[in-house]
Design brief:
Blueprint lengths: L3 H4 L7 H7 L2 H13 L5 H17 L4 E5 L12 E2 L1 E3 L5 E3 L3 H5 E2 L19 E5 L6 E3 L2 E10 L8 H21 L8 E15 H4 L3 H6 L24 H16 L4 E6 L5 E6 L2 E2 H21 L2 E4 L12 E10 L12 H20 L1 H7 L21 E2 L2 H12 L34 E3 L4 E7 L5 H23 L4 H16 L11 H9 L8 H4 L6 H9 L5 H54 L5 H30 L6 H27 L12 H5 L4
Length: 695
């Protein structure tokens, strides 16, 4: 049998392949492009394209594509064959340097938020040589950024790359002050832990709500949910294991470092975590992982649900975005060091993150805002919608000592003097010590836990990179002017802690009292996407994005519009699906059941028998049917009003307040009816059928 070490990365045009297939001159200039972002010479591009093509054809590829990530949050590709007619009526396989570096997909239907008028609808794709090309389903995929002709970003990769440049620039300024001579670049690193559900394909196909919306809009809880906690880390069922084995193999071939797999809390819920990598690669790999999960599931007659809340009443799915900063010399800047100088540097980076999260709570919330994720955040199973930081008691004590000048309990002698003292040993977090925090320090990285399972991790990391870049730039501005570095550094860290400690919360984020306390601390509680999104356009955020060249003003506005529209479209589709299910299935089925009961009652009457059960239930289901009917008229009425609402922010709020709420009201009546209607009459498979469908 082939070993993992033999096939790992076999479908990737990685460094090893480049070294063996390219002349040393070409290899060197390509490496330069990869490391320093220098533009690639066309003759070099031609040689790379030639080598790539030959390699890909040997691996069975027939087509190539510029693989990109439009603002829909999923990936896009348009395949072009390598074939080109030859003079003798046959074909040759061709792939030129210009096809490698630039593409022009006719991609006019992707959302652009008004950045492109339809007459100049074309955008172009540009190769991101820092993310390796790979082969997927006989297609050579070239990771690219997608821009308009005037250079505006139309995708999620471009701003992510820009944000990585921004934090690189600012972190280097700070690192220079600490005398790090050898450090020439830093990169942020990310390890995204991915949660998902697996259900049987046959039952999936019996639920139009899952098919159209990715989540169930109706469904009563089965007698058994997740209360026994017997699924979490439980034995993996053979069918699921077979899926995981196939998935791992596919991921490994693509050089994706799938590492851990386990059952999650809810029945049918699982998790996959990769080993971390550079942020843009982690984002590409996470997109691929989500896509391949769905593909492999189908092969096993399963369906992989990536929605944040496929089932009401059991846990939803998220993505833990583990984030850190690494130097080209291999130092993790969020790892406390061994010497006073290393510790001082660590504390400065740490306080930069604390300040960033406090000042840009709104942007972090927005970076994970979606219709699906709204069902998770704040629902006592996922972090609350309030953004706060968990640092753990040991680190909190350190911060307190710096702030107050009082000695550390663990260090009898005196208080902690930055640049002079060594930090006490901090425990590395190996378990999830505080699952209720949206943003937790876990020893050498931060774990942003509010990201939704179906979302691209780009958005969260664009924001993280940018807000930390901003704070580092402010710190560098101050310290570059300093005449007494050690003292000024100490004061800066101390002042920052004092000003921003309100964002630190080590308690239970699910506790109702936290909401009041957070409110008293002046923290934001942006409960829903429509409430969060308008902050995108706050002046401080526009200033942030434009000053670090992440977005132009028109790019921000476009992204805002798209996010609003996306939300409204999703809720609208959900409402239409719910109405369809009510009109064509639930109401007629309940009626049929009532009719059956009615006949039973009549029959019993003739025989002079009592019909206690039938009479009781016919009353209940008739009442339910009338209620459902009234509510569904109200829902139709609310929906009909949406066409008159012109502003995107008004529309999303209206849908949240009047459409989603009405859908919930209908659902609660339908779900109650489900508990008493004969299963034979019930039109759809139940939660029990769905959640326990894989054996
Ligand atoms: P924990 O148990 O604290 O969650 P793990 O070691 O299990 O930590 O790691 C969880 C995820 O964090 C993995 O995907 C891992 O690769 C990632 N990770 C570890 N170190 C870093 C780092 N320096 N930067 C980004 N992600 C990291
Ligand atoms: Mg973790």
């Amino acid at each position: 049998m082939e070993q993992v070490t033999d096939y790992f990365g076999s479908l990737v045009f990685d460094d090893k392949v480049m070294k063996s297939k390219l002349s040393s001159d070409v290899y060197k200039s390509l490496k330069k492009t990869i490391q320093d972002g220098k533009e690639l010479d066309i003759s070099v591009a031609n040689s790379v394209a030639q080598a790539m093509k030959e390699w890909a054809i040997l691996k069975g590829a027939t087509h190539f594509t510029h693989w990109f990530q439009p603002m829909t949050g999923i990936t896009a590709e348009k395949h072009d064959g390598f074939i080109s007619p030859d003079s003798d009526g046959r074909v040759i396989m061709e792939f030129k340097g210009k096809e490698l570096v630039k593409g022009e997909p006719d991609a006019s239907s992707f959302p652009s938020g008004g950045l492109r008028a339809t007459c100049e609808a074309r955008g172009y794709t540009a190769w991101d040589p820092t993310s390796y090309a790979f082969i997927k389903d006989k297609v050579l995929c070239i990771p690219t950024a997608f821009c308009s002709y005037s250079g505006e970003a139309l995708d999620k990769k471009t701003p992510l790359l820009r944000s990585m440049q921004a934090i690189n620039k600012q972190a280097l300024r700070v690192l220079k002050l600490f005398g790090n001579e050898n450090v020439t670049s830093i990169k942020t690193t990310v390890g995204p832990e991915q949660e998902y559900f697996l259900i049987d394909k046959d039952v999936y196909l019996k639920r139009p709500d899952l098919i159209y919306t990715g989540r169930t809009l109706f469904g009563a809880m089965p007698p058994k949910g997740q209360e026994l906690e017997d699924h979490y880390f439980g034995v993996i069922k053979p069918r699921v294991q077979a899926f995981m084995n196939d998935l791992n193999e596919e991921l490994w071939k693509l050089g994706i470092l799938g590492k851990t797999e386990h059952n999650e809390v809810a029945p049918a819920q699982h998790e996959l975590a990769p080993i971390f990598s550079t942020t843009n690669i982690a984002a590409d790999h996470n997109q691929l992982t989500m896509e391949i999960m769905q593909k492999i599931a189908k092969k096993h007659d399963l369906v992989c649900l990536l929605h944040e809340k496929p089932f009401k009443g059991v846990n939803g799915s998220g993505k833990h975005n583990n984030w850190s900063i690494s130097t080209n010399t291999g130092i993790n800047l969020l790892e406390p060091g061994e010497t006073p100088a290393e510790n001082a540097q660590f504390l400065l980076f740490l306080t930069a993150v604390i300040k960033a999260v406090d000042e840009y709570q709104d942007l972090l919330r927005i970076s994970v805002a979606s219709a699906g994720n709204d069902f998770r955040l704040g629902a006592n199973e996922a972090p609350p919608a309030i953004v706060s930081i968990f640092v753990g008691s040991e680190l909190e004590e350190v911060l307190e000592s710096i702030e107050t000048g009082k000695p550390l309990a663990s260090k009898q002698s005196n208080f902690l003097k930055i640049g002079v003292d060594v930090l006490p040993k901090l425990p590395k977090d190996t378990t999830d010590r505080n699952r209720t925090s949206p943003f937790a320090f876990t020893g050498n990285k931060f774990e942003f836990r509010a990201v939704g399972s179906s979302e691209s991790i780009s958005c969260a990391n664009i924001i993280l990179n940018t807000i930390v870049a901003e704070e580092l730039s402010k710190f560098a501005d101050i310290l570059e002017k300093s005449k007494d570095f050690e003292n000024d550094l100490h004061d800066l860290i101390k002042d920052t802690i004092i000003k921003h400690k309100r964002i630190i919360f080590n308690g239970n984020g699910y506790d109702a009292s936290w909401i009041d306390e957070a409110n008293a601390r002046g923290l934001l509680n942006l409960k829903s996407t429509p409430e969060a999104l308008p902050h995108y356009l706050d002046q401080k955020n526009i200033d942030l994005f434009t000053s670090h060249n992440i977005y132009t003003l028109s790019e921000i506005k476009a992204r805002y519009e798209i996010a609003q529209e996306q939300y409204s479209k999703i809720v609208n589709i959900e409402a239409l699906t719910a109405l369809d299910m009510v009109n064509k299935y639930y109401l007629p089925s309940i009626s049929k059941f009532a009719n059956f009961l009615y006949e039973s009652i009549e029959n019993k009457k003739e025989l002079g028998l009592e019909a206690k059960y039938e009479t009781d239930v016919i009353n209940k289901v008739s009442k339910a049917s009338n209620e459902i009917y009234t509510l569904k008229l109200e829902l139709e009425n609310a929906l009909s009003k949406t066409s008159t609402i012109t502003k995107v922010e008004d529309l999303s709020l209206f849908l949240k307040d009047h459409v989603l709420t009405k859908m919930e009201e209908i659902r609660s009546v339908v779900d109650k009816a489900e508990m008493i209607v004969d299963k034979k009459y019930w039109p759809f498979v139940s939660y029990g059928d769905l959640l326990y469908s894989v054996n």
